[in-house]
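not sure who needs this but someone in the group chat was asking about Chorismate pyruvate-lyase from Komagataeibacter saccharivorans so here u go. i didnt clean anything up, its just raw.
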Amino acid sequence: MAAATGMVWAGTAPAAASGWPDTPSGRARMLAAIQELEITLLTHPSATRALEEWCATHRMADRPVVVAHKVAGNSPETVPERVRTDLAVTATQAIRHRQVQLVCGAHVLSVADNWYVPDRLTAQMNDALDQTDMPFGHVVAPLHFSRERLEFVRLWSPSDEKPPVAADAMIVPPAIILRQRAVLRDAHGLPFSEVVETYTSQTLDFTPAPQTPPTR
């Protein structure tokens, strides 16, 4: 899948080696965490809500609230034809673009590129998207939307890594690990947004729970 146009990775350096030893056990535990993240994302129509649940479960911030940091001046010059087709709009119908970093505490969890049809939102929603940094999912929540996933890709796995060089090595993932593309539909099934969400390795920047020894 092609990367989102104009993707910004400021502040999305690889996760700190805070608790993932580069051992077979450490890699297996990190893979299990990535699979847990995938399930969390796949079982929520709102990525914002999913990330807040993830942040709370793993105690990644004192207040597990996801906020959006809008990236200004990064909109593509043209709307991809794929997006117009997916949203069932004409060649001249207005589509707006919004890119944000979704942040919980000190962690940039994802970068979201969102194309949306302003005519299919309320005036209040459009004002909020234009004038505030509110996450898109929170703004359009009154539409009781559903998510039609078009792509869901794991971009990296700890099983891809080579054996560690040092005995005390820690796993340091690349900056991005997952990406999904989806169309959001309102309660009547009308598509109003297409989003590409790219999830960073900072979603793994927590200390995993101690491994429970096997019972005898």
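also The first helix runs from residue 24 to 42. if thats useful
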